[in-house]
Amino acid sequence: MSRLTGILGFSPLGSFTMGGTPPVAGVNTTMALGLTYFSMIQLLSAKSTYMAGWVIGLYKLPTVFNPTRVASDYNTGANLVNFSGYTTQALAPWTAAGLDAQNRVLVTAPLVVWTPTNVLSPCPVAGFYILDGAGQLVGAQENPAGPIVVGGTLQPFSIFPQFLEQAIA
User: Fold this and answer.
1) Structural domain boundaries of the chain?
2) Is 86 exposed, middle or buried (0-12, 13-18, 19+ CB in 10 A)?
């Protein structure tokens, strides 16, 4: 299982079905492919090339993510974060893929910080979204504890992006 910590879930390889063609009841077996750490590092290295074009942004209103969502669900209209000094930010450069202390394969990007330059009224931040290099929505994450209010000049808001590949237990 792969996951961008706190953001979304991916399935890098899916499952494989073995047995007769067409599928035969009681004969076919679906199983997950086990990967070596080396293979997981290689796969995540390939993904990080695609991830190099990603940008991260914030949104204001609680918006439950589902796979049919599009970028405009998060970055336009009433959901647009509007404190001065706010803009989407690039998620780059990603580190080289490697193993952490729990033998999970991961890459990280530098800490992303937004610092309002002039906030006259509080601005809620309900979560963040990620767009690919073409502006398509990759995913979004709502803060499970509810919106965080950015309420003053120079009050920073930050996110530490990391992408983990975890073994399926």
Assistant:
1) 2-165
2) buried
pTM, two decimals, is 0.74
Q: Rounded to an integer, what distance in angstroms lies between the CA atom of residue 132 and that of residue 6? A: 17
Q: How far apart are CA 142 and CA 6, in angstroms?
A: 9
**Tens digit of pLDDT per residue, the chain (169 long)?**
333 333 333 333 333 334 444 444 444 444 455 677 788 888 888 888 888 889 999 999 988 888 899 999 999 999 988 888 889 999 989 888 888 888 888 888 899 988 888 766 778 899 999 999 999 999 998 888 888 888 776 778 888 888 887 655 4
Please report, to the nearest 10 degrees, the dihedral formed by the alpha carbons of residues 13, 106, 129, 72 taken in order: -40
Is the CB of residue 23 less than 8 Å from the CB of residue 75? no
Tokens of 22: 């067409």
**Phi, psi for residue 58 in degrees, rounded to 5:** -110, 155
Cα separation, 36 vs 16, whole angstroms = 17
The sign one gets for the Cα dihedral 49, 161, 56, 131 is: positive
CA 80 to each of CA 106, 140, 145, 160: distance values in angstroms, whole numbers, following the listed order: 31, 14, 20, 21
Residue with tokens 């961008």: 4
